[in-house]
Amino acid sequence: MESRLYWEDLKPGTVLDLGTVSPTAEEIKAFATQFDPQPFHVDEQAGRESVFGGLCASGWHTCAMAMRLTVDNFLRNSSSMGSPGLEKLSWMKPVFPGDVLTLRHRILESRPLRSKPDIGLVRSVWEMFNQNGEQVLLMEGYGMFRRREPG
């Protein structure tokens, strides 16, 4: 499929709504069982007895849900060349079964890569909110995108 968004299209200040996701208790437990089997992620009673007050998603699961929304609603239609990493990652509030999570992506800055003139670097922030408008996730990092017209 021909890419629709290139580095030149990704201007600082651009804000993208990347959709919503709502994890179920079964999805939370399945992810945690495989990747983060702490008691409050895999057992309702342990969750109720924890500081979180109920079964909650692993922060890594929250990141994975954000990544899925990012791929489905942005990267799949872009010239993405991957990422050199994140600078910030914060889990602000727990995510519970049935929460409706909305992801917003904001481009902070953009520059061509000196070492690879066919690629541009974009620094962005991803913010995820629950149905009450409370922020549950903050990520800040970089993406590399093919340039339409290498410099």
From TrEMBL:
Residues 20-112 form the MaoC-like domain. Pfam families: MaoC_dehydratas. PANTHER family: BETA-METHYLMALYL-COA DEHYDRATASE, MONOAMINE OXIDASE-RELATED. This is MaoC family dehydratase. It comes from Ramlibacter algicola. The lineage of its organism: Bacteria, Pseudomonadati, Pseudomonadota, Betaproteobacteria, Burkholderiales.
